UniProtKB/TrEMBL annotation:
InterPro entries: YdbS-like_PH
Transmembrane segments: 25-43, 55-78
Keyword tRNA processing found: no
Keyword set, alphabetical order: Membrane, Transmembrane, Transmembrane helix
Domain YdbS-like PH: 80-154
Keyword Isomerase: no
Native organism taxonomy: Bacteria, Bacillati, Actinomycetota, Actinomycetes, Glycomycetales
Pfam families tied to this protein: bPH_2
Segments forming a coiled coil: none
Name of this protein: PH domain-containing protein
Length: 174
């Protein structure tokens, strides 16, 4: 059982589980291809040298390429894959990080305002930044590069209204 299933309350149902827009994963993939190609070309030319110390140069090239791959490709990819935006029928959850985790949860009953921003580029590709303001001490959650941000906002408002109606019906029946 993985995230968010291991964080759900009894009867709680996930309505949306997503991560930042796929454009966040494009850069790391491009850096990976570029540095892999550059490293292969550099190592190929270095091995053709007629020089006794070329093994050290090849080793240095391998170390540099691996360091650049990890820094510009692997770490950003892992960061993207470990960021979760989850909306359930009871709350909004955000979690980020693999080694050091940060997590925020806001009950739907505490959601006051939901807003989002999109520039032209973001509208074309269907994502945006969402700000969820809460009436609790938790403050707000800022979700970056949310896919289908307008539909996500509509879903969140609908779930908040459903939660309010459920709570008021439960309050009237007792």
């Amino acid at each position: 059982m993985g995230y968010p299933d291991d964080q759900l309350a009894r009867g709680e149902e996930v309505k949306l589980h997503t991560r930042p827009h796929w454009k966040e994963g494009v850069g790391p993939v491009l850096w990976f291809v570029v540095f892999l190609a550059i490293g292969a070309i550099a190592i190929t030319y270095t091995t053709r040298l007629d020089w006794d110390g070329k093994i050290w140069l090849v080793l240095a090239e391998v170390v540099i390429v691996i360091a650049l791959l990890v820094w510009l490709s692997v770490i950003p990819w892992i960061r993207w894959r470990s960021t979760h935006y989850v909306i359930t029928d009871q709350r909004v959850m955000w979690r980020d990080g693999l080694v050091t985790r940060e997590s925020r949860h806001i009950p739907l009953a505490r959601v006051n305002t939901v807003s989002y921003t999109q520039n032209v580029w973001e509208r074309i590709f269907g994502f945006g930044d969402m700000n969820i303001d809460s009436a609790s001490d938790d403050g707000e959650i800022n979700l970056i590069d949310v896919p289908k941000v307008d539909k996500t906002k509509a879903l969140l408002y609908q779930l908040a209204e459903d939660d309010r109606a459920r709570r008021s019906a439960a309050g009237d029946g007792t």
